[in-house]
Description:
Elements: E1 2-6, H1 8-15, H2 18-23, E2 29-33, E3 39-44, E4 49-54, E5 60-66, E6 86-87, E7 102-105, E8 115-125, E9 128-137, E10 142-151, E11 156-165, E12 171-183, E13 188-194, E14 202-207, E15 211-217, E16 230-235, E17 247-252, E18 258-264, E19 270-276, E20 283-285, E21 290-292, E22 296-301, H3 304-320, E23 331-333, H4 335-338, H5 344-357, E24 361-364, H6 396-405, E25 409-414, E26 418-420, H7 424-428, E27 447-449, H8 455-469, E28 475-480, H9 501-519, E29 524-527, E30 545-547, H10 554-564, E31 573-578, H11 591-598, E32 602-606, H12 614-636, E33 638-643, E34 650-656, E35 662-669, E36 692-697, E37 711-713, H13 714-718, E38 731-739
Amino acid sequence: MKHITILAAALLVAVMPAEARKAKKFTHQTVEIPAVEPQSIVIETAGSQLVLAVTTDRNLVLRHYGAPVKDAGQFTHMDTGRGNGAQAYPAAGGTFLGQAALHVKYADGNHNTELRYLSHSVKASGGVKTTEIVLKDYVTDLQVKLVYDAYRKENVICSHSEIVNGGKKAVELLEVASSSLTLEADKYLLTHFHGGWAYEMQTARELLDFGTKVIESRRGTQTTQTENPSFLVSLNTGEFSETSGEVVAGALAWSGNFRLSFEKDETGLVNVLGGISPFASAYPLKAGETFVTPEMIWTWSADGAGGASRNLHRWARQYGIYGGGTVNPTLLNSWEGAYFTFTTPTLTGMIDDAAAMGLEMFVLDDGWFGTKYPRNSDKSSLGDWDLCTDKIPEGIDYLASYAHGKGLKLGIWIEPEMVSRVSELAEKHPEWVVQSPGRALYEARWQWVLDLANPEVQDFVFGIFDKTMQLAPGIDYIKWDCNRPVYSFGSPYLGTEQDRFFVEYVQGLYSVMRRIREKYPDVLVQCCSSGGSRLDYGAMRWCNEFWTSDNTDAISRSRIQYATSMIYPACAMASHVSAVPNHQSGNVTPLKMRFDMAAAGRLGMELQPKNLTAEERALAYRCIKSYKGFRDLVFTGDLYRISSPLDSDYYAFMYVSEDKSRAVMFEFCLRYQNRATGGHLLRLAGLDPSRKYLVTEQNVDTSCWWGNGQSFTGDFLMSGGFNPVLNGSNASAIFVLAAR
């Protein structure tokens, strides 16, 4: 038997008053932990392997995450030079001094948890193998179940934890991570993403040094506007590479406050934790209750960042995005073309123009609702989801019928989590508003947040969606917006248990979305939050696509879409063509460049078509028709980033079909180049070296490449034979490749 000596009782004697010390006797305690035979637990995909080991004293430690090893059992007795090695799920307490995945405060005030292995089980379903490992604190009745879902073909491992209070008294979860992963390398280059409104998903890179790097959001809603819960770590290098070297990527599937931490300890190891932010969230776990964390999504690649991205994209299309990989319709959104000022003829005119240009759906954005307080600006009416008959007296059913008659689907905008101060809902239910009693009720965008921790509010928000769908038969698409963060947080419903608020808000949101999908499994839902402020795999479980940014400027979008593609697939990335000067940036770019950039995701338009010239309308028709011919590659193909808008004057990338028979390649010249330099050399990627490809530039009469319309072998195109002349600032080109 292995014995662990507990010295806590003796230590308390020293600090207690003399009277108390006389009244009680304290002795050392010896706890016996039955020894076990060491063993390895192997969690693997086709191209990666995570190896955990159970030590003699029942510690669960991480031995390996990387390339598959045929005989992974060799890791069982590996001498790490650091004792047992890195704990697989470190808890605060005992001898552990680092950043803890789990920190529990017990009813007696104790903060020590020391987890030991109890058992594990493995089950498989389709291409997914699930490993569940049960750990237990050796003193209390607290258990932790670690769950690993290994997606073999996609080379992704999803991990979450389940904390079970098997005791008779409540405990507090002060910190609880979804997953922990320890990395060992000479260098660690962290790539992560930051930004703001109209400036989402900007790329940052830094070498991890000793200490702790934290990426965190405390916004409550709109939690990805400034930071995104995702990252890549390039190992053993200070240089970012698309094509070579080991890369570990991670993303947290959670739409609320989050925290990612990267702690480099004195030995040079980096422990990565991902989970819900502990900010104001000391979660009370009652006796018999279980707390389930959101999933942390991991992938490992030996082929640089590009390989990691392709793994995540394949997984997302199959498992991570609602309806992922399905080709969604092109559309015209009314927002920038009409804003709040429109009537039925305005909208039917836009529908006519959308149909004439070859688009497939019309989306009515903000401004269609409000009776007592008509929605004529963003200063009123949220919460009052009745049709404004002053604008559309014929009704939404008339609009839907008109769109369907033109061969278009119809979508509509809602913002169900919010309420305007000037609204009938705020007058009727002030207790439904997120608030801290006795403190200022701060507005943002002239609106407040509804308390989704409250089941009544959840019913109301579900009812908004349900009621909107009943406005007309054949509403095909809902744009779900969320336009402010949480200030002065508090839930009247939760009373004194305010520590539950941030977690239960998100759980309430997910509960609503689950009910929506049960009743409306086929409706398309866009996840929008002032642009990309709710871009995470938690939200995408329920949504078909995301609004990448309110900034539709093609130059700005080059950086935004580049960074977004590191983690999230193009099939869900909504990208629109808008007017110039651009309404957010003021930039003026050619219409073709705007179409080419938008064609890299789900293409749409967001302008007043009547303001286009006849020549521009003709180009729009041509670009939309061309897009329909290759968009299946954008939605389902493998992405290869060829050059970066951060490091080059050129931004180039391509999507390649799984069987390598077809591809579409995009290139943008973002800054003026000396015309004396001639063509710009690009090494294409992902093609079959031995097959010949017919290369055809899209939407031009005179190509920028000498080889347009001819066939070339894949190895020629990937080895320096492709050199289009694209030297004009804001010039762009799209090439379709088809194997012959």
